[in-house]
Design brief:
By secondary structure, the chain is an alpha/beta fold. It folds into three domains: about 70 residues, Thrombin, subunit H; about 270 residues, 3-Layer(aba) Sandwich (Rossmann fold), CATH 3.40.50; about 40 residues. The protein is built from eleven helices and 18 strands. Helix 3 runs parallel beside helix 4. The radius of gyration is 26 Å and the shape is globular.
């Protein structure tokens, strides 16, 4: 018997490889403010969707689900989304372009250029949601980092791998201080994240604060205040992912973020729109759960690189007991209060090296305290009601002198 001829499947394999794949589709069922409900498609939380509109596509990010419906927040304008619009899930994990190609560039939260130059083409990719280094993989903080600002290096010295929070109200000079550090810091790479800033301030920061002569080692990720909440959140995540990539290459990275408070506010907007109950001053559990993983991604890992992070924290009304400053202070190795007395003191762990301990002592002595807080029972002078209700003038004068001495002691 003659053997049967072999059947070649090569042509069939080519046809299968070139055939279009069937994609799942859902439908838009409801749009209320910054929340879009999608039915008919099932994907995990954190995945991205595309809403097909007559003018193009509107990206969404899944933030939850309820009663067989996905709850998604828009990553762009919702204009054009109609009832029953088709929704397609995106393939693959959300990543960020990394590499030397991003140096000297100003990009948005999606990696698109804002400086008028061509699109960033990079073969390297890094996940936006990465895990922080394990506790025992972190090397000790034992090397100082020169910021180039003499006042900081003398009074508030930093070390490689530290996380510092600059706490202050509006108009105090946080952005100006960050610009000085970007110009003069002794770091290999500088990553600046401008979260929730006005569009005018982004150009001023790049042109004046950093300067064109220093952009060669800098990457600026900007998510302005006119963008949707989750776009601002993504800007902070992208900047952190870029800094992690350069740390893996053994470089000393300075990560500055202005501001982490607007990152928390953006998460609050998105989670409140999804129906999450608020806890304290409108902040939801999602905000408190997202801040520590973001801040913990900075620092040192098991390699030779490091990320020294400086986060600005907007203190509204000089209230340092606000939930956002309190949580940021708990997740940083050192804090700096720009004005106002505060129970939040500079705190560098005692288990670090001697250089970091010396920096902690200097930092504790350098926290300026301007005036006692309003309503302080121990050092505030008597009110008008207390003066008029006093039985005798000498008693009121004695109380005033005593309160003055206590106020000077607080200063």
């Amino acid at each position: 018997m003659n053997p049967e001829p072999a059947i070649s499947l090569g042509s069939y394999a080519l046809q299968v490889a070139s055939a279009p794949l069937a994609r799942l589709e859902g439908r838009v069922k409801k749009v209320v403010g910054q929340l879009v409900e999608v039915e008919g498609v099932h994907v995990a939380v954190g995945r991205e969707l595309d809403v097909i509109t007559p003018s193009g596509t509107v990206p969404l990010e899944v933030i939850g689900f309820r009663d067989e419906r996905l709850l998604a927040a828009p990553l762009g304008p919702t204009a054009g989304i109609s009832p029953g619009a088709r929704v397609r899930p995106r393939l693959g994990e959300t990543t960020a372009e990394v590499g030397d190609e991003v140096l000297g560039r100003v990009i948005d939260a999606f990696g698109r250029p804002l400086d008028g130059r061509p699109l960033v083409r990079s073969s390297g990719r890094a996940p936006l949601h990465a895990q922080p280094p394990a506790p025992f993989e972190r090397r000790p903080i034992d090397r100082p980092l020169s910021t180039g600002v003499r006042a900081l290096d003398a009074i508030l010295p930093l070390a490689e791998g530290q996380r510092i929070g600059l706490f202050a109200g509006t108009g105090v000079g946080k952005s100006t201080l960050l610009g000085m550090m970007c110009r003069h810091a002794d770091a290999d790479v500088i990553v600046a994240a401008l979260i929730g800033e006005r569009g005018r301030e982004v150009g001023d920061f790049v042109r004046n604060a950093i300067g064109p002569e220093n952009m060669g080692r800098c990457v600026v990720v900007a998510a302005t205040s006119d963008t949707p909440p989750l776009v601002r959140v993504r800007g902070a995540l992208r900047a952190t992912a870029i800094a992690e990539h350069f740390r893996k290459q053994g470089k000393r990275v300075l990560l500055v973020m202005d501001s982490v408070t607007r990152f928390a506010m953006a998460l609050r907007e998105a989670s409140l729109a999804a129906g999450e109950p608020p806890l304290t001053k409108g902040y939801t559990p999602t905000v408190f759960a997202a801040l520590p993983p973001l801040l913990e991604r900075a620092g040192r890992d098991g390699g030779t690189g490091s990320i020294t992070a400086v986060y600005t924290v907007l203190v509204e009304g000089d209230d340092l007991n606000d939930p956002s400053p309190t949580r940021c202070a708990a997740s940083s190795t050192g804090t700096s209060c720009s004005r106002g007395s505060s129970p939040i003191a500079a705190s560098t762990p005692r288990s670090t090296s001697s250089a970091a301990s010396r920096g902690s002592r200097a930092r504790s002595a350098s926290v300026p305290i301007s005036t006692p807080r309003r309503g302080c029972a121990s050092c505030s002078p008597p009110t008008r009601t207390q003066r008029t209700s006093s039985r005798s003038a000498p008693t009121w004068r004695a109380r005033t002198r005593a309160s003055t001495r206590r106020a000077r002691a607080c200063l």
